[in-house]
Specification:
CATH architecture of the largest domain: 3-Layer(aba) Sandwich
Number of domains: 3
Low-confidence stretches: 1-20, 401-420
Number of strands: 7
Structural class: alpha/beta
Strand content: 5-15%
Radius of gyration: 28 Å
Helix content: 40-55%
CATH class of the largest domain: Alpha Beta
Largest sheet: 5 strands, parallel
Strand order of the largest sheet: 2-3-4-1-5
């Protein structure tokens, strides 16, 4: 009775509570515990915009599916990668429809797995919540014998909180083997907040789409159609010079479709255009939109490369790193450039410094995007050009002072600007 009263008082304080009978069922009936966890900790659906253009990422999907089928979970899966790479969408796609999935989203450093589950189940903070007791309840339900615990961490979660949750995942999923654990990190740098535990953590890196996946996404969206040679070339240029970040492709695909519709509406309001005229207006708007987007991405990437090479505290280390990456864009191990990945991670976190990232699965540095690779190449080419120009200026100055030399061609003080 005391427990029921405590729960009801929690309801009055704004905490979702359980009535006395439900409390008794919760503690006495394993199947009820399992059902309540599933009902109140469901995996959110995939956003409609993403569902419209969802593409298969077979290799990554197979790894997640295999992890969720394991009989014994000696390790939990850590899904890492840059923002917008599709980490959460990928996990949702593979687990939606599965019977036993418990989803926990941690959005602040004061939240924990236990606290979120306690709130979902209406158990007041003063009452104990034995997670082992909770997850054992799943064995009384039909379907998969063991649940999948998905914990998603927001970027606001502090390093201490991330370490605490990774420790809790280890206990639940590895030590006690109660669930298949999947920890979804907010960005590539968040992996440095984890308790390093390679025997119990398996890193799954989610990066840009490959060419086939990116083509499928744009085909589904109906933009930059490959049947038009001009648009097909622009699509290739987009992948080659900017990259294939899923979130960006989806966002810009939606904006491009809007630009096309507005262009057709504009000519339709003043005349009665033919089908060919409508198609021409839509194509012109689409080309202009993507050419502008490519240019803007290149300019932003150039600023971020310049920030790393001129403003970062470890700018000498980043210089060696970027030069090494230009020789091997697939990735460079930290020991090859004598640059600690942990040290680098602190300097590439602030906005405006995201020119490189650290692939924690491959244990190597990579360019953040294709745009940053092109920007780095342009930066060093411009630096070499400026250096040569200064040498020519000095040579020209010496020649003008020599009575025996012919006058040199006029030189300006500014180096030529590379057209990139």
């Amino acid at each position: 009775m005391y427990l029921a009263n405590t729960v009801l008082s929690g309801v009055k304080n704004g905490i979702e509570g359980l009535v006395g009978q439900e409390v008794a069922a919760w503690y006495n009936d394993p199947k009820t515990r399992g059902r309540m966890l599933l009902q109140r900790c469901t995996l959110p659906n995939i956003a409609a915009a993403h569902k419209e253009v969802l593409v298969e990422r077979k290799e990554l999907e197979d790894l997640i599916a295999a992890h969720a089928r394991k009989a014994v979970s000696e390790e939990y899966l850590v899904v890492a990668g840059p923002r917008g790479s599709g980490k959460t969408t990928l996990v949702k796609k593979m687990l939606l429809g599965r019977e036993k999935v418990v989803y926990v989203s941690l959005k602040s450093e004061v939240q924990t797995i236990q606290a979120v589950l306690r709130g979902k189940l209406g158990i007041p903070s003063g009452e104990p919540l034995d997670l082992e007791h909770c997850f054992e309840a799943f064995e009384g339900l039909t379907g998969e014998a063991k649940p999948v615990l998905v914990v998603e961490l927001d970027s606001n979660v502090s390093a201490d909180a991330v370490r605490q949750q990774s420790q809790e995942m280890k206990i639940l999923c590895s030590d006690q083997n109660l669930a298949h654990g999947i920890l979804v990190l907010s960005d590539a740098n968040a992996v440095f907040k984890l308790n390093p535990d390679p025997k119990r953590q398996r890193i799954l890196w989610v990066g840009d789409l490959d060419e086939n996946e990116a083509n499928a996404l744009l085909d589904n969206f109906g933009v930059l159609q490959r049947g038009d040679p001009d648009l097909a070339r622009l699509r290739d240029r987009l992948f080659r010079e900017v990259g294939a970040n899923p979130q960006n492709l989806v966002l810009k695909g939606s904006e491009a479709k809007t630009a096309k519709e507005e262009a057709v509406a504009a000519i339709s309001s003043s005349s009665d255009p033919t089908g060919a005229e409508r198609a021409k207006a839509a194509k012109a708007a689409e080309r202009a939109f993507y050419e502008r987007y490519i240019h803007e991405e290149q300019q932003d990437a150039l600023k971020e490369v310049d920030n790393l090479l001129t403003q970062a505290e470890s700018k000498g280390d980043f210089r060696r790193l970027l030069l090494a990456l230009l020789k091997n864009p697939a990735g460079v191990k930290s020991h090859e450039v004598h640059f600690s990945s942990l040290e680098a991670s602190e300097e590439i976190k602030p906005k405006g410094f995201h020119a490189v990232t650290y692939n924690s699965e491959a244990k190597s540095f990579q360019f953040y995007s294709k745009a940053h690779e092109h920007a780095a190449r342009a930066w060093f080419e411009h630096e070499a050009s400026a250096s040569l120009w200064r040498k020519l200026l000095r040579l020209g100055s010496l020649r003008t002072r020599s009575p025996h030399s012919s006058a040199p061609r006029a030189l300006t003080s500014d180096p030529p600007v590379s057209e990139t």
